[in-house]
Amino acid sequence: MILSMTGFGKATKVYNNKKITAEVKSLNSKQLDFGVRTPQNHRGIEMELRNSVSKALMRGKIDLFVYCEPIEGATSGTINVPMLKQYKAQIEEMAKELQIPEPDDWYATLLRLPDALKTDAKSNEVDEEELNVVKELVAQATEQLIEFRRQEGARLSTFFEEKITAIQALLNEVPRYEEPRTQKIKGRILDALAKIKEVDYDKNRFEQELIYYIEKLDITEEKIRLQNHLNYFLETMNSEEPGQGKKLGFISQEIGREVNTMGSKANQADLQNLVVRMKDHLEQIKEQVLNVL
Question: 151-289 has which CATH code?
Fold first, then answer.
């Protein structure tokens, strides 16, 4: 079963008058591209969080966020009234000297200034239990993201099966155009020879050259290899081995190589039409295979 690289997970818990939230999101990327943002007082476990999430998610552009907010009714600081008195006096003096009006909204002006709020130093301290809560939430968010990847992977599996089946159906149509194609090529060459007057040729040699020419246009090997690649794509997609995305990408390239060769050898409108339709399905596969882990 394949997994998508796209996913999102979130977990929240209230601990010690704080609402702690962990979010993990992932997008497709050729390699592991990890970004993490945590509160200052949680930086000590940042590397541990990075390692655990990286190991679980393997590949993709991954972003981990941890937020801590005081819950409603809880506060970690008080308004620094003495400091605001000094600010107000300085602003009034400045307004007088510069002959400019004083602020219309003193509250908004003063509360935006540095040190307007006195923070309790203890509120920034974290204990081992809080760090364990953060680890637990990150693990829960990661598991949610993995489940999201599973669901998206199931959708991709259905999509790939439909496209591979469509290419298989087109491949099955190829034989009915091959015999008429051979006869048409032979007839075209004979018509061209008939138009050249007073030219005699060795019919045995002609047959040999014709066979050689038709063999160069033969697509039997391409059909066999294409069939093998289609089977291998489905086999790889349904395997339990993790991280099939890159391998599926390589197989789709091989499918494209055989389809292109068939198109260059086709020399027949109906057969080339089949090849164009195969390419259309294959391009859709290549687009979506970039999202596979």
Answer: 1.20.120
